[in-house]
Amino acid sequence: MSLTITPTIARRLAITRQRLAGPMPDPTPAGIMDVVRDLGCLQLDPIRAVEKTQYLVLWSRLGHYDVEHLHTLLWERRDLFEYWAHAASIVLTEDYPLHQPNMLASRVEDNDWTKRVAKWLRENHEFYQYVHDALKTQGPLFGTQLEDRSVTPWKSEGWNEGRNLGQLLNFLWTQGEVMVAGRKGNQRQWALAEQWLPQWINQPPLPEAEVVRIACQKSLRALGVATAKQIKIHFIRNRYPNLKQILADLVSEQTIMPVTIADETTTYSDEWYIHADDLPLLERLQHGEWYPRTTLLSPFDNLICNRDRTELLWNFYFRIEIYVPKVKRQYGYYVLPILHGDQLIGRIDPKMDRKTSTFRVNAIYLEPSWSPTSAGRQAITDQINALGQFLGAKTVILPEGWDKAEGTVRGI
């Protein structure tokens, strides 16, 4: 079966599979679970210039919702947990078997890093045993409730220098021995995995090929349409051994289909794939069933976390400037891209001042390729106000002249 779709349909398929078009999910725990199942993960990041990214990613899809629902799913129902996906993330507990291979691999001394970690843990065995025993008898515990009893300090040229307790807990977290059982601000509460998720960690690991077979399909479905390279760096990033052969097997079984992306002027290079389960959605999109939305995206949003793919599909160059010196920033510290229908039409540079309950947009940058209309500007304004309301702002301040702006507009 040979499929050819246009770049527009490819974008719409990706956006719909990302739950950024069509009917909005209910802002309930069940709705959150539906979204996370489609996305595969919610990236974690502590920066709160606007709001933590895990909350923003859900807001873009659910609108106004109660963040305590997410906490309930994490800490009470334990339907979700924190682990590595394409970055440190919130993932589905039902996907534990897909993350378990990374936990087990992190314990094997087969490269310079794992050898170094294992050596340090052996040198600090009594320290490890103290933490293990404390969590077993007293846990869950915050790091502040544990002592640094290291014998050999952790050596690093970076910010982890001397952070012995934090490093020990992070190593054990990566290895799947401890889990995050709660949070207070950016402080993590820790528990032994054997006590937190015993019904999962005691299951025998899935064969490697089966893990890759399941995970690559989850990655492809989250992307809508993708190349092997894009699948590889999405969801469980770079943990797809023998991916080429497994994709070939899935094609042979007609579980996934090769697809060409082309229009009158452009044909995308590389081989692209679509999942057979998304063919009905593709057919509806090709027949004009498209229900677009306007929303603002976290800089770490799943739709745009692959910068090269974002530039290819949307002709939108996006980089995070958090670590760029202020004088060298092109757009701002924590910029939110604007999704309008099937286009990324610009970005805003916002800041939430929680002391004054003020959500201020310092600047709005529109792409030269987008011709603003009054309806388009109003849709963006509505989303800025909606985000301000979600953040608890009493006042939302937009740059003066925004209602008539044809391009970039900055505040004072």
Provide structural commentary.
The protein is of the alpha+beta class and 412 residues long. The protein is built from 16 helices and 16 strands. The strands form 4 sheets. Strands 11, 12, 13, 14, 15 and 16 form a 6-stranded mixed sheet that branches. A hairpin with a 4-residue loop joins β13 and β14. The chain is globular, with a radius of gyration of 23 Å. The model has no long low-confidence stretch (mean pLDDT 94).
* Low-pLDDT ranges: none
Strand content: 15-25%
Distance between the termini: 57 Å
Query: Biggest sheet: strands, sense, closure?
Result: 6 strands, mixed
What's the shape? globular
Annotation, overall tally of beta strands: 16
Q: Total helix count?
A: 16
Radius of gyration: 23 Å
Helix content: 25-40%
- Please identify the structural class as seen in this structure: alpha+beta
Average per-residue pLDDT, rounded, comes to 94
Label this structure with key terms.
globular, 16 strands, 18% strand, 412 residues, 39% helix, four-stranded mixed sheet, six-stranded mixed sheet, single chain, alpha+beta
